[in-house]
Amino acid sequence: MKTYLVTGGAGFIGSNFIIYILKTYGDIQIINADMLTYAGNLENLKEVENNPKHIFAKVDICDKEAIGKIFEKYAIDCVVNFAAESHVDRSIYDPEVFVRTNVLGTQNLLNVAKKAWEKKNGFDREKKFIQISTDEVYGSLGDVGYFTENTALDPHSPYAASKAAADLIVKAYYDTYKMPVNITRCSNNYGSYQFPEKLIPLIINNCLNKKALPVYGDGLNVRDWLYVEDHCRAIDRVIRKGSIGEVYNIGGHNERTNIYIVKTVIKYISENLDNTINEDLIKYVEDRKGHDRRYGIDPSKIKEELGWKPTTSFEEGIKKTIHWYIKNKAWLDGIASGEYTNYFEKMYGNL
Ligand code: NAD
Ligand code: TDX
Question: What positions does the domain NAD(P)-binding occupy (predicted)?
């Protein structure tokens, strides 16, 4: 039996990852350390709530003592660090917590893992620290070209800068101590359990509630979209086969403009649920400060070296996703109250 410490496992990608791992393997138990910020939700883990191989601990990754206790109690084989403040717009309003969690939290996890794993003659090669990072650390692309693992880091938002700083600390633990690490940098994810502050679930939620659909700037910024289960399979591949110290970009060449995404959601909902929903709901609003124009991942390395490729096309994934939110409207309604209402009003005013 292997034991993974998954941080941020009550968030969007972390919960999908835990469900994927427990469904796929019988010999892995997961300690899920999540502080349950506004973005953490144990409802995301209903599918595995009675599974004894999922052990939840309400823990802040910055808390040395609490993380230390987890390592004392369990023989952790692998840390998968999803825990983060993850929303660019929130980082523009309030960067401080991004530095605290994303930078200092990652450093704390590295340090506790190092103490537990380091032996006299170095590290046990079976142990691994996986840092879940993002394509945003590379900055923004023009109309051509892609981010490779060798692209220089050039983050723009406070969120992206905090993730880039964390990546560099992880790299330093490899360069200095030869700690067994990998960094993964994935493009925009979409799928079930994504918090409705992010573009796709926000647009779906607003369509379902017949509210205006905010599109920043000219709507022509491009993001490279990956279905969350494909991301989870890629991380699994990196844990099992990734060469120590390496960075792996993850993406599936699914670049779309934001306005294309918004129109796709409207069309699906109009054809399948409510034909009164139409493009009149679109509202162009003030652009995001420092808005990156285009992201595009070159996934050649993970494809060639680890044999991973995405299995869900964008057309299939977006349909599955919209359908999931329609079926799970109660989950959305549960979130879209309280803190979310205040956030929405602060961000979008009276749309
Ligand atoms: P999310 O915001 O949905 O979830 C983050 C989780 O971390 C939440 O459950 C939250 O409670 C927890 N958390 C926050 N601060 C914590 C702390 N101090 N201690 C313990 N737990 C804490 O985020 P997500 O979209 O699932 O992203 C997960 C990771 O993947 C992040 O590191 C993010 O940078 C990265 N990533 C996300 C995307 C994307 O498109 N969503 C793409 C690439 C990389
Ligand atoms: O209301 C909106 N209107 C709009 O036009 C929102 C919320 C977003 N947008 C635009 C901004 C972006 O160009 O849509 C695009 C996607 O925005 P987000 O969903 O906020 O994602 P992004 O900023 O691209 O960052 C995401 O991908 C990389 C995740 O939030 C990060 O955690 C991840 O690292």
Answer: 5-321
Residue 75 counted as domain residue: yes
At residue 177, the 3 state secondary structure works out as helix
Q: Which amino acid is at 292?
A: D
Range of the domain at 37: 2-189+228-253+293-312
Taking the C-alpha atoms of residue 195 and residue 216, their distance in angstroms, rounded to an integer, is 18
* Residue pair 65/43 in contact by the 8 Å Cβ criterion: no
Give the Cα separation of 80 and 77 in Å (integer): 10
Tell whether 70 is covered by a domain.
yes
Ligand 2 pocket, CB under 6 A = 86-88, 134, 136, 188, 198-199, 202, 214-216, 221, 223, 258, 288
Cα distances (Å, whole numbers) of residue 19 to 30, 77, 90: 10, 19, 27
Q: At what angle do helices 106-117 and 64-73 cross, to 10 degrees?
A: 40
287 domain residue, yes or no: no
Q: How many residues does the chain have?
A: 351
Contact 234, 189 (CB under 8 A): no
CATH code for the domain in which residue 178 is found = 3.40.50.720
Mean pLDDT of 151-164: 98
ipTM above 0.85, yes or no: yes
Q: Is residue 94, in this structure, part of any structural domain at all? A: yes
Give the position of tokens 């649920």.
273
pLDDT band at 338 (very low <50, low <70, confident <90, very high): confident
Looking at the 3D structure of the chain, how many domains does it have? 1
Q: pLDDT exceeding 90 applies to what percent of the chain?
A: 97
Amino acid identity at 235: I
- Closest alpha carbon to 41 in 5, 69, 13, 4: 13
Q: Which of 241, 323, 348, 334 is nearest to 41 (CA)?
A: 334
Dist. CA 330–CA 342, nearest whole Å: 19
Helix (H) or strand (E) segment spanning residue 54: strand 54-58
Pocket of ligand 1 (CB under 6 A): 7-8, 10-14, 34-37, 39-40, 60-62, 82-86, 101, 105, 132, 134, 163, 186, 188-189, 195
